[in-house]
Amino acid sequence: MSLKQHFELLATYNQWMNSKIYEAAGQLSELELAEDRGAFFGSILGTLNHILVGDTVWLKRFATHPSCASSLQKVANLPNPTSLSQTVFDDIGRLSEHRAWLDQQIINWIAELTESDLDFVLSYHNTKGVPANRRYSSLILHFFNHQTHHRGQVSTLLSQAGVDIGVTDLLALIPEDPSVTAVHRVP
Length: 187
Description:
CATH architecture: Up-down Bundle
CATH superfamily: dinb family like domain
Shape: globular
Mean pLDDT: 94
Order of helices and strands: HHHHHEEH
Pfam family, one: DinB
Number of helices: 6
Radius of gyration: 18 Å
Oligomer: single chain
Distance between the termini: 33 Å
Protein name: DinB family protein
Strand order of the largest sheet: 1-2
Keywords: Metal-binding
Structural class: mainly alpha
Helix content: 40-55%
Organism: Marinobacter salexigens
């Protein structure tokens, strides 16, 4: 599997997991979603908004890659988040709709990348204005890891609220490899 194919798998995983998370969150009331549960971003809704904000910040940076201007144009045109704890949407319905739209943008963007695009060094400033220069592929890996990290927090908060989201392992999306034959050992 190429690096690009791994990123395509992670984009699909992101969409699949977000669908599961939002379906589970939809079982809770607005009060339960907004309840401060002691998480870093307070509530389930706060954490889901943070994931959205983080994705938006990174996708706007990724849009500055010369070959990504068109694939990420719609995301680049979004307003800049004001903080990492910004509440972009205060209701799960609108948040879920925007999340589904953003997940499709991510899938489209990754599909258009080439292996050579991944070697690009991206120059950007972090949210505190500190300049950085990092390999595009490493930043994409961070992007997907950040989502997974915070979705793990959301799944814990949902579990504590009595909602089971089911299987969350990436393994569920990794296909069997028909080129590999099983080795059987005789005792």
